[in-house]
Amino acid sequence: MSAFGDYYSNQKGIFRSKLSEIVKSAKDEISNDPKNLFINWIVVFKDESILETFEYLEINNNEIKKTNYGYEYKRNSGYFFFYEMEKEKSSADKADTAKLAKGIDEMKKEKSSLSDKLKKPQYHLHVGVKKEYSSHIQKVPELLDHNGPHYKVSPITIDEIIGIIIVNFYDTKINLLDRFKINITPNVV
To answer: Could you give phi then psi for residue 166, rounded to 5 degrees?
Structure first.
């Protein structure tokens, strides 16, 4: 089997069999076109919470590299969290940036670039409440949908997302963690 096939089969096994006690349904969409590899999942849990995922991938030397991803978990209460990796700028975008004028314009660009990196880091987390569930929360717009801060996080795997869901929302089912090997991304210091 190919690296992509192995990767996809692992996810399919997790959602369709290893977590069958808590997963009601799992629908996927994939593209194994080498120029546009992706896997999308909509997983409905038995408590009606939903995990929606997308991963865009590249394969080099039989190694999978994620170029863009999003993992959004939504509860019936309206609460959600969304881990996201923004796609990196293309080399053409980087070349255009390098052509910008020096001096004051360069300083403004650097300041803006730092601000942009802090406001929306490549790897970030949103936490909030969906608008339709937030009649009394209008006074805290940062909590509505994805309007709030983009909290900088380390890269994360779909296995870690599943682990986070299990330990925070299915604590009586903690033995579910033993059913699959969670690949924890090492912390970078």
So the answer is: -60, -50
Instruction: Return the bridge partners of 56, or none.
Output: 38, 68
Distance CA 52, CA 135 (A): 24
Q: Are 84 and 69 in contact, with CB atoms under 8 Å apart? A: yes
Helix spans in the chain (H): 3-13, 91-98, 104-119, 158-169
Distance from first CA to last CA of the chain, Å, rounded? 36
Rounded CA-CA distance 109/102 in Å is 9
Contact criterion met (CB below 8 Å) for 69 and 57: no
The dihedral formed by the CA atoms of 168, 56, 30 and 26, expressed in degrees to the nearest 10: 10
**Strand 123-129's sheet: what is its strand order?**
23-33, 36-45, 50-60, 63-74, 79-85, 123-129, 151-152
Q: 30: helix, coil or strand?
A: strand
Sign of CA dihedral 170, 174, 177, 178: negative
Q: How far apart are CA 41 and CA 72, in angstroms?
A: 10
pLDDT digits (tens, 9 = 90+) for 3-52: 899 999 999 998 998 888 899 999 999 998 888 899 999 999 999 999 99
